[in-house]
Every structure is written in C-alpha cells, then in structure tokens.
C-alpha cells in the first residue's frame, strides 16, 4: 500500500538516526580526555595517542555525511511511501546507527583484517541498501514524484559507489593494506564519466527514435522518458 501520509515522519526519523550516529562517533574520544588530564598529557600527546581514533572518527563522519546527503537527495524525489519502503529505510538506518561500533573496533584493531572487513563491510551494506531504496522508489507505482524523476547519473552513480565499496571490502579483507582499501572509492568519479554519460546518451537516442517512429505512424510521440536521464544532469546520489 502506498500512502502520502507520514512521509515527513519517516524522513525526520532517518535524519535523527544519522545525527545520533555522528554524535556517537566522538564519544570514545571524549571519554579519553579525563584519563589524559589525570596523566597530565599535553594536547599534542593526547592527539598523538588517539590518532587512530581520530582517523576513524574523521572517515566515519565523512561517510555518514555523504550517505545522508545521498539519502536526502533521493527522498526529494519521493511523494509517498509504502510499507516495504519504510522497512528498507529502517535497514538503511540500522547500517548508519551501528557504524560507531565498527569505527571503535577498527580504531583499536586497525591491522586486523576482520576489523577492517567489519568496518568497510558496514559501509558497503549501507551503500547497497541505499541503492535498493533507489530501485524500490523507481519501481513502486505512486512513490516517485513524476515531476522529479530520478536521473541516470544518480542511479548508475549509486550502483558504482556500492560496487566500489564491495571492492574495497574485498581488498581490505584479503590484503594487508587495511583502510587504504577505501581509496578505491576515488574511482567513482572517473567511472561515472566513463559509464554514466554514454549510457544516458544511448537512452536519449532510443527515446528520440521512438518519438520519430510514433510521429511517422501518426501517433502522439511518447512522453519524455529521458527526462531526468540527461548526461549533464548535475544530481548525483
């Protein structure tokens, strides 16, 4: 069942989950301050001792912020929600709220492949669930706002990001590079330039041919299914 009522509550709840998760990231560092004060550590010594925690906090903060921005952008296209959409959104919220745990684990055990896998795997799960959300929104009748169609760049970009998170997960678990495996995510931009625009152009050419065929047959050309699929669309999830 699709309904427009309660959509704001779903979005506000998810925003609150992301805000709480980001707040939880910094709490382990705050707890270390009192111990540092008892040992009369300087600021430089405190930061040096907790460098791994600071690194984990910075990475996780950036990841949660990026994923939340993608979620926020995605739900701007939504005008209603279904029960399934709400439950998948709960699954995404779970991957966000649990991220402080693998962050703490990897900060203490950064050389352990299992810790790295737990950390990157949680991020990969979040990105993959977000992609599932996008597909569900696009495929469920009545959910997507027809005035705000999803762009090809956003949809393919989400798939690319999820795939790169999975690649980073495999590299982090099977090789000793640790968190450096996350550098694979920097391939997202080049891959989008390589794949997204050509695909969008092919879709637009297909629409043009369909429109020409309908015109020759005396029928009204089909609606612009390429709307939102422009290769130059700046939206990116």
Residues in helices, as a percent range? over 70%
**What is the N-to-C order of secondary-structure elements (H for helix, E for strand)?**
EHHHEHHHHH
Query: Structurally, how many domains make up the residues?
Result: 1
Overall average residue pLDDT:
82
Distance between the termini: 26 Å
Classification by helices and strands: mainly alpha
Which outline best applies? Answer: globular
List how many beta strands DSSP finds.
2
Strand content: under 5%
Low-confidence stretches: 219-237
Largest sheet descriptor: 2 strands, antiparallel
| Cα-based radius of gyration, to the nearest Å | 22 Å
In the sheet with the most strands, the strands line up as 1-2
Supply the number of helical segments. 8
